[in-house]
Amino acid sequence: MTEQTKLDQFTNQLAAVATLVPRDHKKVGKIAQAIYTRQVVTIVGVKTTTSRFLPVSHEGYSNETYVDKVELWGKTRAEFIARKLKGVERRAHMALFREKVETYLRNNGGGQQGWQTFFEEKFGKACTIPDSLCVACWNCSLFGGMEAGKGATFSRIRYFDTFSVEDAAECIQSDDSPEGMAIGNTVGEDLSVERSEASFHRYEYVKAETRFPFITIIESPTLLDVAGYLAAVKLADQHGYGKYSANHGKFKTEFLAVSTGYPLFSVLDLLTWLENGELTNPKEKLHFETAVNNPVTLFGEEIDEIRSKLDGQFRAYMEALTKQ
Ligand SMILES: [Zn+2]
């Protein structure tokens, strides 16, 4: 018998890709299967800003924008709430999904067919975030959703609020009337005319090189869920998070560990460890406890191997959908 690689051991604990194929409910049509394997995959990493970032979850303030902040463990920290992280990564995941569908169809005799037709056929409608979710596709199976008259699928992915490692005094700055910021009432304005105080937008932002550790847990995961999540995060880094994300909120993400267990640490522990430079060898600090079987934990290049499985797993998903 050949010895299993660590990635094989990891994969063997996950659900089959066919569990992502929706069932056909007599009354309501296509709906994502409820899968409960009690297994989880935890992904741990650090996101570092590469540009100005405006984590803003509140509305209001006519011409002023404030970064969300909290007092936590002796520091004032920029706060990056779970709901915002999830929102951006869900959209990135959907963008990736649509692109992969179209590539697959092109390479498998589907011609230049758009994702919409395929979605309508396989999931009952062209799933659109946030107002017209199909509750049947891979994205809805992972991130959850509701549709009137059809029901709901629970989200299988859990996010946690995160905070800057650095103190506000170090990582938050404010500025006036920046070029490139979306300020509706200045578009088309004659810039040679001196502007009044009222047309300036005063805003705070998180500076580049600010670190936010994160923990994400996927329940009843397939290998496609994990590989797709890793790719979606990288895509979201390019698209941008936070307010004015067209120009701002770019990140680079380092994945520190991916495990089939629950974390024995929290985001707060990660903050302390990063502050003290204690995460240079993630293996020493990042420990996990049993979900179903003994956790298999991947680090460094082993995580890149999961990412390399995306295309093969996606193909398997498309084949499972087409076989129906
Ligand atoms: Zn959907």
UniProtKB/TrEMBL annotation:
It comes from the Bacteria. InterPro entries: CRISPR-assoc_prot_Cas7/Csc2 (IPR017574). NCBIfam families: cas_Csc2 (TIGR03157). This is CRISPR-associated protein Csc2.
